[in-house]
């Protein structure tokens, strides 16, 4: 009876030990498989990283090559009189350089005005005068040192300050406003005299036009294109 009990215990222990050994072997296999997978993944990752690094190096070389070619092209273009003249034309058109030429100087003094007017010269007046000058063919216009270009805004700040290009325009000498325009002098004088001087004088302001060689300053702001782009159609 005692021997049978020992045999039974030994059998159970043997089965348990065998089971544990089996589990250990299986766990080791899984560890080995996981290690192999990790090793393979690491190898793949290293391969991808190396490929990306190689591509990056190629791109860096291509960038240096293109930059060098662009610099060479720029140096060649700067020697091309046609391109230089064309570039100057574009700069004049967009107002990014100071220009000089025959034109008119319009001086408006609103220090003496009709007491019933809350503000002698307003933004509508300025915009109307500028549009008249453009209609007369003015190639460049400025108001108290501020170049008028495409993005130019003329707005009122508060009740007494006019902003041109977001800059408060100050009085020039004894006059309140000095508007310069380059273009055909006869045409400018004719249009501005007939369409603008009378309304200003009727409002109680002093206004005069002088023919002279004027210098119109460059536009100090920047151009920002967030939505417009070149169309090949």
Question: Keywords, please?
Answer:
single chain; 233 residues; alpha+beta; Alpha-Beta Plaits; 2 domains; 5-stranded antiparallel sheet
Task: Explain how this protein is built.
Strand 4 (154-157) and strand 5 (161-164) form a beta hairpin. Helices cover 52% and strands 19% of the residues. The N and C termini lie far apart (104 Å). The strands form two sheets. A five-stranded antiparallel sheet has the order 3-2-7-1-8. The chain has a three-stranded antiparallel sheet with strand order 4-5-6, with helices on one face. Helix 3 (123-135) packs antiparallel against helix 4. The protein has two domains: 1-79; 99-216, Protein of unknown function DUF881 (Alpha-Beta Plaits). The chain has four helices and eight strands. It has helices at 2-77, 81-94, 123-135, 185-202; strands spanning 99-109, 140-143, 146-147, 154-157, 161-164, 167-168, 177-182, 206-216. The radius of gyration is 41 Å and the shape is elongated. The mean pLDDT is 77. It has 233 residues and is α+β, with helices and mostly antiparallel strands.
Share in β-strands: 15-25%
Distance between the termini: 104 Å
CATH architecture of the largest domain: 2-Layer Sandwich
Q: Mean pLDDT, as a whole number?
A: 77
**What is the count of β-strands?**
8
Number of domain modules = 2
Fold-level CATH name of the largest domain: Alpha-Beta Plaits
Sequence of strands across the biggest β-sheet: 3-2-7-1-8
Task: From the alpha carbons, calculate the radius of gyration and give it in angstroms.
Answer: 41 Å
Major β-sheet profile: 5 strands, antiparallel
Helical proportion, percent range: 40-55%
Which ranges are low-confidence, i.e. pLDDT below 50, for 5 or more consecutive residues?
Answer: none
What structural class should be given to the helix and strand makeup?
Answer: alpha+beta
Number of helices: 4
Shape: elongated
CATH superfamily of the largest domain: Protein of unknown function DUF881
Would you state the CATH class of the largest domain? Alpha Beta
Regarding quaternary structure, what we see is: single chain
């Amino acid at each position: 009876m005692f021997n049978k009990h020992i045999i039974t215990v030994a059998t159970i222990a043997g089965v348990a030990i065998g089971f544990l050994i089996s589990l250990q072997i299986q766990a080791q296999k899984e560890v080995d498989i996981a290690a192999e997978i990790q090793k393979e993944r690491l190898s793949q990752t290293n391969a991808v990283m190396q490929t990306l690094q190689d591509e990056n190096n190629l791109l860096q070389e291509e960038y240096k090559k293109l930059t060098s070619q662009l610099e060479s092209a720029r140096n060649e273009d700067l020697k091309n009189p046609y391109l230089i003249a064309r570039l100057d034309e574009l700069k004049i058109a967009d107002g990014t350089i100071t220009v000089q030429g025959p034109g008119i100087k319009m001086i408006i003094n609103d220090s003496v005005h009709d007491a019933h007017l809350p503000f002698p010269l307003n933004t509508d007046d300025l915009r109307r005068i500028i549009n008249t000058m453009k209609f007369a063919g003015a190639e460049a216009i400025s108001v108290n040192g501020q170049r008028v270009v495409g993005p130019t805004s003329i707005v009122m700040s508060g009740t007494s300050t006019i902003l041109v290009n977001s800059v408060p325009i100050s009085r020039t000498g004894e006059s309140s406003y000095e508007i310069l325009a380059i273009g055909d002098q006869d045409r400018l004088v004719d249009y501005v005299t007939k369409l603008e001087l009378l309304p200003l004088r009727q409002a109680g302001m002093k206004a005069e036009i002088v023919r002279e060689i004027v210098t119109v300053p460059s536009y100090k702001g920047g151009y920002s294109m967030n939505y417009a782009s070149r169309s090949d159609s």
